[in-house]
Write a structure and sequence with these properties.
205 residues; single chain; mainly alpha
């Protein structure tokens, strides 16, 4: 395997860096998304019940135990419990934007790698072909097959490695974006319900 890597030439080193970065981002993002636990229906039911009892501190204590974006949004909003609806809405929006930034962390770099890896592979293809032509031009008579094969190997191996990095990364990027869209939909819906519940409470008071 190491011999194949060396046959790819100097372009293989930035490709190796890209592969390490993809693995690091993937593991970190999978850990992040899979660690977000919490039943949204249960969160809504318990928080709204405690709000009806005018017990925001108990609701905050309950939410602090949960590792879930909606729970953190509700917790931020409950810190302004008793204030006007505009402050609650601002708190929910600011907290939601912070959660989105957390979800998107590292994905910008992953997107760059998806574009850069095939281009690096193409660069290796070009340099490999150039090496092959240099062998042809320098040879007196017919060049040896071994000399020609080095340039051809460099051209093919770098292209293959670039695609091997980019194609799985593309599917991973799609899955991460789907998870973000799903969470964003839940956050918007739960924020709307929180504001409606808070508004009804104000009318009752």
């Amino acid at each position: 395997m190491w011999q194949i890597f060396l046959s790819g030439g100097p372009v293989m080193y930035p490709l190796l860096l890209c592969s390490v970065l993809v693995m690091t981002i993937t593991i970190e993002r999978l850990w992040y998304f899979l660690s977000q636990r919490g039943d949204l229906e249960e969160i809504r039911r318990i928080v709204f019940r405690l709000m009806e009892k005018d017990a925001p501190l108990e609701a905050i204590q309950y939410l602090q135990k949960l590792n879930q974006p909606v729970a953190r949004m509700y917790q931020a909003a409950l810190l302004y419990y008793g204030k006007d609806r505009a402050q609650i809405e601002t708190s929910l929006r600011d907290s939601g934007e912070l959660e989105i930034k957390k979800m998107e962390r590292g994905l910008g770099l992953l997107d760059v790698i998806i574009t850069a890896a095939p281009l690096l592979g193409l660069l290796g293809t070009v340099t490999g072909i150039i090496d092959s032509f240099n062998v042809l031009s320098a040879a007196q008579g017919l060049p040896s097959a071994a000399d020609l094969s080095r340039g051809i190997a460099e051209a093919l191996i770098t292209t293959a490695f670039g695609l091997i990095i980019a194609i799985p990364s593309l599917f991973l990027m799609h899955w991460f974006n789907r998870m973000i869209d799903k969470n964003l939909t839940n956050m918007n819906q739960m924020s709307k319900e929180f504001l409606e519940n808070y508004g009804n409470r104000g009318e009752q008071l």
